[in-house]
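Job type: complex structure
Entries:
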Amino acid sequence: MESCTILPFSRSLSLFSPRSNGDEARPGSSLFKRCSSRPTRIGCQKMYVAGFGEASPEKKAANHLHKFFTYIAVRIVSAQLESYNREAYNELAEFLSRHSLNDGDKFCAELMRESSRHQALALRILEVRSAYCKQDFEWDNLKRVASKMMDEANTRLMREYVLDHVETESGK
Amino acid sequence: MESCTILPFSRSLSLFSPRSNGDEARPGSSLFKRCSSRPTRIGCQKMYVAGFGEASPEKKAANHLHKFFTYIAVRIVSAQLESYNREAYNELAEFLSRHSLNDGDKFCAELMRESSRHQALALRILEVRSAYCKQDFEWDNLKRVASKMMDEANTRLMREYVLDHVETESGK
């Protein structure tokens, strides 16, 4: 996980599809029309995100978090089993070596059908991922961390560019 | 994006690393120790997620949302340009065809250094992704959608399993 470099959100990127949307908006700029011009979003002052069809960005993000929570639940259950039920721990490890966790729901469905012991593990994973999503995951913290990360990344990118630019200029 | 099947969160999965953590907890079960036994998390009633090291699950999720927001910002800016500045739109499209959006920060850094016109595009993308993260993205909705998705997925998985089981039994 730590070495992940692939971003699913940007997969199958089709920014330049034939359809045209002229109702995008950017706060603070009169250059851009606001999405309030869309009959379906009356009074909306938000930027229009093109190309998401029926699924909102929030739903896309929730879908990926859903998979993340399954991954987290598998980690939690696995660590629990490791300390008191090595047999089940090994069974889960063996199952994981044969099945991908990329699609959490598919993983759970397959785990349920492996054997009665695996079924019990699957039910626990379902229970844990639900509890984690609703009780343990710090949603407010997520927003705070994401906002901070955004500020830091933007500042760093601009600073690095300026430094590079100064070095290039001084090297001339 | 719609066809995404790869989950980054579960990449480099190393659930079964040699280290052992015996302080995992599950709400409502006396079988599991609570993470309050950890001196660093006194009074914590949350499930312990093993293997995350210094980075919390919230930080991991925020990191992926950060990339998602860059992707969203590129979509927004691209759609804006399409309606009033075809030249810049084509330049961005051409740049996108040569550079991956998997790492949003790297993409922006490279866009900044392409040319002065590309630099202006990059600065706009930085501005838009920050505004989107802080103003437009519906964080409360994200939590609501994720919780609903979790309930629906768990119910569906269990229902499908029961139906399969009934069919198998009746087929005997």
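Summary: Residues 139-171 of chain B form the longest helix (33 residues). The CA atoms of residues 60 and 79 of chain B lie 29 Å apart.
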